[in-house]
UniProtKB/TrEMBL annotation:
InterPro entries: HAD-like_hydrolase_sf, HAD-like_sf, HAD_2, HAD_sf, PGP-like_dom2. Gene3D superfamilies: HAD superfamily/HAD-like, Putative phosphatase, domain 2. Pfam families: HAD_2. This is HAD hydrolase-like protein. SUPFAM superfamilies: HAD-like (SSF56784). Transmembrane segments: none annotated.
Length: 229
């Protein structure tokens, strides 16, 4: 855990989902390969499946932007079908019961909830994907709200977090995430940023500007206990 500033104790914490709470690759990679097999079988894509690293490196983007990076040679029809297939296949994967949260996520969230911290999700993912993860891993009673680009129609994580703060009337919060979009969302909304350095999907500059870097999710409890009022 690397701290660069004194944190003020927040009334709320706002979490990214992929790479922060949820081990995305546990559902994404099987779905990813099935998706491209289906696209090829339907005649919508003829090239080999792009490298997994290209998809993992795009996490945190809006879905429409992800396909521009992952298959820039794909047609608009292929991109639209990929949107449909990814959600369908990921929900099937979640229903299969083999997906994973990061270590100590549930226990840490439960402790923070008991201590009176309001917990929220703010993700650039699709609405049913986010709610599917929360339901599958029995987290629904812990969160005061789930905000997603798919549900709320926001174009950036900055706008999504701004909307959350306004609608929930949150006055102080920590933004917790693993991508540069999370750092930007926290900074531009006047929040302290906790950078999650354990997922490893992005490059080493992803979390530049975070107030604190944590190497395990449970470090949040130590930060909260040490934070000033």
């Amino acid at each position: 855990m690397n701290s660069s500033s004194k944190l003020t104790r927040p009334e709320a914490m706002i979490f990214d989902m992929d790479g922060t709470l949820f081990q995305t690759e546990s559902v994404l990679l099987p779905a990813y390969h099935k998706l491209f097999d289906t696209l090829r079988s339907e005649g919508l894509y003829t090239s080999p499946t792009p490298p997994e690293e290209r998809m993992l490196g795009s996490l945190g983007m809006l879905l429409e932007d992800i396909w521009k990076v992952v298959m820039p040679d794909g047609s608009p029809e292929a991109h639209n079908r990929a949107n449909e297939l990814l959600l369908q296949l990921e929900l099937e994967g979640l229903a299969g019961g083999e997906t994973l949260l990061y270590p100590e996520v549930k226990e840490t969230l439960e402790t923070l909830h008991r201590q009176g911290v309001k917990l929220y999700v703010a993700s650039n993912g699709l609405e049913h994907y986010i709610s599917g993860i929360v339901d599958t891993h029995e987290l629904s009673t812990l969160f005061s709200g789930l905000y997603s680009a798919g549900k709320n129609g926001t174009l950036t994580k900055v706008d999504l977090v701004k909307l959350l703060l306004e609608q929930e009337q949150v006055k102080s919060a920590w933004m917790v995430g693993d991508r540069s979009s999370d750092v930007e969302a926290g900074q531009k909304n006047g929040l302290s940023v906790i950078g999650c350095a354990y997922a490893g999907f992005g490059n080493h500059d992803e979390l530049k500007g975070s107030d604190v870097l944590i190497s395990s999710f449970s470090d949040l409890l130590k930060l909260y206990e040490k934070s000033g009022s």
